[in-house]
Amino acid sequence: MDQVNDWDEYTFTEEQIKNEDYKATIGGGKEQWDKRGMYQLLCMAHFGMTPEHTFIDIGCGPLRAGDYFIRYLEKENYTGYEYNRDYTVIAKRIIEANNQLKSKNPTIYHTVSNMFEFSIGFPTFDYGLAFSVLNHCTDEQRIAFFNNIKSITHPGSRIFFSHGFWLTDELKEQIPDIWAVFRYEENHPSISTESFGWKPHEIIYPFIEFERMN
Ligand SMILES: C[S@@+](CC[C@H](N)C(=O)[O-])C[C@H]1O[C@@H](n2cnc3c(N)ncnc32)[C@H](O)[C@@H]1O
Taken in order 16, 20, 26, 32, is the CA torsion positive or negative? Predict the structure, then answer.
């Protein structure tokens, strides 16, 4: 499919949904879909997320990883947050069509704002992941992200993002100081990106962790 400038410009016909053409809009496409989805769960488990934790998948897309997260987490512990309307329609259909996913009663939230706004009454989460999301954003959106995730976290919450090469010292200075920031530069040997469908030049590191201190 053609590349677009704004994620919300991707729309899909019934035929395209049936053929799973939406998979071609995300890096690795259909071919690497399952591996790259599973990889994200292994990473979060590696970072300490267990089934009883509550988790938000920020920019969840059409559940490439969400499928794995929902199966892993206990009932009601998964929330997908997404800006592209059709991705959320697809995500909801995938859940509806699968009893195991449906029984976990996950939440899929469509946001009309691309500034990481969370409505009043949004819960807080123990863990969060924005996988291949902030690298597609502007600095203005990134700063909004750092400010706005305060309302969906509590002390001890841990938020991770991939492709963190853009987190410069200058940008760090604009991040509220309730966050301790950690960088993970290297592949974990047992979950190396190459064995999960990334080519050597497709660098998804550093992974960045924000741990909320108070
Ligand atoms: C490269 S895709 C990654 C999708 C998913 N995280 C994965 O790894 O399969 C980026 C996703 O982030 C979403 N996104 C980008 N900016 C967003 C924003 N400001 N708020 C919510 N979602 C956003 C896009 O619509 C898209 O689904």
Answer: negative
Binned at pLDDT 50, 70 and 90, residue 190 comes out as confident
Asked if pLDDT for residue 5 goes beyond 70, the answer is no
Q: Which residues pair with 128 in a beta bridge?
A: 56, 159
Which ligand 1 atom is nearest residue 7's CA? 25
Give the position of tokens 């016909």: 13
The mean pLDDT value for 162-170 works out to 93
Q: How far apart are CA 67 and CA 139, in angstroms?
A: 30
Q: Please state which of the four CATH numbers 2.70.40.10, 3.30.1120.10, 3.40.50.150, 3.90.78.10 is assigned to the domain occupying 31-212.
A: 3.40.50.150
Domain ranges of the chain: 31-212
- For ligand 1, whether the C-beta of 131 sits within 6 Å is yes
Mean confidence (pLDDT) of the chain: 94
| Verdict on whether the full-model pTM lies above 0.70 | yes
Q: Which atom in ligand 1 lies closest to the alpha carbon of residue 8?
A: 25
CA of 210 to the centre of ligand 1 (A): 19
